[in-house]
Amino acid sequence: MRYDPASGELGGTATISATATQDLARFNFDLARLKASKVTVDGQAATSAADGDELVVTPAAGIRTGTAFTVVVDYSGKPEALNNEALGVGGWLRTKDGAFALGQPESASTWFPVNDHPSDKATLALSMTVPDGTEAIGNGVPGPRETAGGWTTWTWKEQKPLASYLAFVAIGQYRVQTSTHKGKPMVIAIPESLPPTSNAARAMARTGEVADYLETQFGPYPFDAYGGVVLDDDRVGYALETQSRPVYGNTFFKGGADVSVVAHELAHQWYGDSVALDRWQHIWLNEGFATYAEWLWSEHEGGRTVQQSFDRVYAAFDWSTPPGDPGAKRLFSDAVYIRGAMTVHALRKAMGDKAFFALLKSWPADNRDGTVTTEDFIAAAEKASGKDLGDLFEQWLFGKTRPTY
């Protein structure tokens, strides 16, 4: 890709390796607000047409089920974010010195053609060309940089499959710190608008420490790189578990070097990234465990114990939204995050610590690089505990009244 911050123009060539899961006369990619100028399938010209936020590709010949094929799409335009009334703004946002692409559940389709659904994970390599003096940070392991004619090309490679919403790019003026942690690259990017001693920088400096602690709870770190990116932009009042390199809005650090949010997003590297959702209704498996990781980290740091964190929210919680199927408008509600974490703790009490903490490691190990459902997790928990846990999950995930505890 090539991006010009001055004009806001993005041009790209996407090469997609795919396999047909049915006989195909045509197929679609998600591609929002950008126009394809040329499409080939296995080197042969294909026709393409826009259909809303989708690109419909008709190859010269049909593709049989099970056949591997390669699509190359040349495209360009001024990318825009998607504004979903129920889910908020996600995708490409232009800034004074560059841009960033970020968002959940929709983001990737605003900057490259993709099957923008968490069940279809893929590896990703990014080559982003920007004006000299501008940084471009992405997922995974950094590659060589090349400079020519006033432009610099940054390269990044994520060799473990990722859900499309976990892909990101941040372009602008950043201080990029590259080091090594446990033999893997650690890349931290802090906006130049924030001082080197800022709360954000101090929190990011603990990334390796937090990841190491979470390894003791969840098993080996699942990716080939570490890091974090901070955005100094009032439009980003959240953090996102972008694979191998979470992105944090600076709003989290205005009151101090808050490490709990770092624990949350790094926990997602196991629960949500390496082990991803088959459908969005199962999002409590991401957010419940990441919130529980915050509670574990607090206890580890000498703050509230996990039980105290549970008691604090259990006493006066609104139980009307079931986290096991919250609906689109409540996909990011307290029911998913906090009641999800309470569900995890109720499970711990039912299983006992030995079986529970063994499950915390076996679940991401057994499902690494895959996608899962709530039913998959219930089955794993019952196998690990040797107990019928149907009533527990029915109350905590699907009930609309206070669960017994």
From TrEMBL:
Q: Which InterPro entries match?
A: Aminopeptidase_N-like_N, Aminopeptidase_N-like_N_sf, Peptidase_M1, Peptidase_M1_aminopeptidases, Peptidase_M1_dom, Peptidase_M4/M1_CTD_sf
Q: Where is the Aminopeptidase N-like N-terminal domain?
A: 9-166
| Domain Peptidase M1 membrane alanine aminopeptidase: from-to ranges | 259-396
Biological process (GO) annotations held by this record are: proteolysis
Keywords on record: Hydrolase, Metal-binding, Metalloprotease, Protease, Zinc
Cofactor(s) for this protein?
Zn(2+)
Enumerate the Pfam families for this protein: Peptidase_M1, Peptidase_M1_N
Domain of life the protein comes from: Bacteria
Reactions that this protein is recorded to catalyse: Release of an N-terminal amino acid, Xaa-|-Yaa- from a peptide, amide or arylamide. Xaa is preferably Ala, but may be most amino acids including Pro (slow action). When a terminal hydrophobic residue is followed by a prolyl residue, the two may be released as an intact Xaa-Pro dipeptide
Which residue spans traverse the membrane?
A: none
The EC number on file is 3.4.11.2
* Any one GO MF annotation of this record: zinc ion binding
Q: Which PANTHER family match?
A: AMINOPEPTIDASE N (PTHR11533:SF297), PROTEASE M1 ZINC METALLOPROTEASE (PTHR11533)
Q: Which family does it belong to?
A: Belongs to the peptidase M1 family.
What is the protein's name according to its record? Aminopeptidase N
